[in-house]
């Protein structure tokens, strides 16, 4: 069993800050092209913010699919208060297009080369990002389908609830591995349908969380805890048992 990490990493802190900024400033919430020097405008409004965390948050925002897609077609940049700033240059539009093209080209790229067939078979048994989990909060989902569109392996489906057999056959990519339980959410607020995820296919790329406008999908780090001698002395479960 796993639990989420209690102390936030710099990545999580930056992500929390970004959510705060997106809620507070419409230019961020709507992913409008940002004025050059927007960091200084933010610091003026949030003087106590850590410059390092802010840089990370801005990097996440401006490298997100939504922002890059917005930049591809943009003609003008915006200040933090929503007033118009400089024009978007052809060069910046072309950069956004090239970045998106490169990103989608890399989705199927091999990350390790040089294995024999036997070694490759062994390697694919392990997850390269197994401590980062997708976490879904049904009450936040507005059923916009953005996560379904972006998932590179079609492991997400929003559908009417049903028996497991019915659901398995109804998924975008039918879930044929019966050993792997499906994630089935609570009823979604708008239509009472459910979000179903086939964990067997998920590659933990995080694109669903990056794309989700409401943070219904989130990527969270988790730990597996094994009892140690110190835990035993504190009244932890008996030797050899696992605790969450
Ligand atoms: S993490 Fe990637 S593969 Fe997994 S559900 Fe999200 S988009 Fe799909
Ligand atoms: S999880 Fe997020 S991206 Fe997916 S349908 Fe719900 S609101 Fe849209």
Please specify the SSE layout and strand pairing:
Elements lengths: L2 E2 L5 H15 L1 H4 L8 H8 L5 H12 L2 H9 L2 E3 L5 E4 L2 H16 L11 H7 L8 E5 L9 H5 L5 E4 L4 H7 L11 E3 L9 E5 L8 H5 L5 E7 L5 H5 L11
Antiparallel strand pairs: 1-8, 2-3, 4-8, 5-7, 6-7
Helix pairs in contact: 1-4, 5-6
The protein binds iron/sulfur cluster (2 copies).
Explain how this protein is built:
The protein is α+β, with helices and mostly antiparallel strands and 244 residues long. It folds into 2 domains: 9-107, Orthogonal Bundle (Fertility Inhibition Protein O, Chain: A, Domain 1); 125-229, Alpha-Beta Plaits, CATH 3.30.70. It contains 11 helices and 8 strands. It has helices at residues 10-24, 26-29, 38-45, 51-62, 65-73, 90-105, 117-123, 146-150, 164-170, 207-211, 229-233, and strands spanning 3-4, 76-78, 84-87, 132-136, 156-159, 182-184, 194-198, 217-223. The strands form 3 sheets. Strands 1-8-4 form a 3-stranded antiparallel β-sheet. A 3-stranded antiparallel β-sheet has the order 5-7-6, covered by helices on one side. Strands 2-3 form a two-stranded antiparallel sheet. A hairpin with a 5-residue loop joins strand 2 (76-78) and strand 3 (84-87). Mean pLDDT is 81; it is low at 1-6 and 235-244. One iron/sulfur cluster is lined by residues 141-147, 211-212, 214, 216-217.
